[in-house]
Amino acid sequence: MPLRDHFHPPVNDEMPWDGFHGQWPAMIVLALNRKLPRRYVAAPQVHHGAAVEIDVVEFDKEPASAAAEVSDDNGGVATAVWAPPRATLAVETDWLSLDEYEVHVFDTLRSGRRLVAAVEIVSPANKDRPEHRRAFVAKCAALLQKQVAVSIVDLVTTRQDNLYADLLDLLGKSDPSLGRERPALYAATCRNTLKGDSWLLETWMNPLALGQPLPTLPLWLADNLAMPLDLEPSYEETCRVLRLI
User: Fold this and answer.
1) What's the domain count of the chain?
2) What is the DSSP string of 93-109?
3) How many helices (H) and strands (E) does the chain have?
4) Per-residue pLDDT tens over the stretch 121-167
5) pLDDT tens for each residue of 41-94
6) Which end of the chain has fewer beta carbons closer than 10 Å to its terminal beta carbon, N or C?
């Protein structure tokens, strides 16, 4: 079945892209947990980035003085509250709250519950600003450093950046299969594995095209164990559940 454009009409009129992105990880989890060896389990991880507001309960209504003395129960005087020095830097900061549409695969027999693979479904917000792109690829690089295999699936038609290529740029590597025109739509798996005395970065990159089926990626559970991550069936089942077929 063909890959649809979930970010423009008519598909986006029937179901906004975030509805599809929210459902697809669950369908991938259902498909994986039917096939994974019993020691492994997949779980969805969905978080739509937004500004975070923190409610702070103010217990002390009166401002505390740094030099105030506090009486103890015996009538004595406790140590004065310590006043830290003036901060060397005080600037307003917009902390990033990233979109996360993920599937995590855990090995339940290693250290209780160890993350071994992650499927990252790219959202428009992951690509809309340089700081968002850097945060996304930094997260992927951190996972790879911990020997977590990372699959990136990018269906976003409204942004042209290739986060897989940005990840390789961060690692100081390049993939000749990308060519000069980096594809905006793609699916790729990356893993960091030990070969002899050296660490080896291995990747499997597939360009995507509207109207074409989705590929099957390797889902690495261990250095010598991989399973097929067949994106097409879960994609089509998601479209069916959301009545996009």
Assistant:
1) 1
2) -------EEEEEEEETT
3) 5, 8
4) 999 999 999 999 999 999 999 999 999 999 999 999 999 999 999 99
5) 999 999 876 543 434 443 344 444 444 455 555 655 555 688 888 888 777 655
6) C
Q: Which residues contact 145 (CB under 8 A, 6 or more apart)?
A: 192
Residue type, 112: G
Domain membership of residue 78 (yes or no) is no
User: Cβ(143)–Cβ(102) under 8 Å?
Assistant: no
- With contact defined as beta carbons under 8 Å apart, do 159 and 129 qualify? no
- Residue 154 counted as domain residue: yes
The model's pTM: 0.82
Distances in Å between the Cα of 65 and the Cα atoms of 58, 82, 87, 118 are 16, 10, 18, 49
CB-count burial class (<10 Å; 0-12, 13-18, 19+) for 29: buried
Specify the DSSP class assigned to residue 237: H
133 inside domain: yes
Pairing mode of beta strands 114-121, 149-154:
parallel
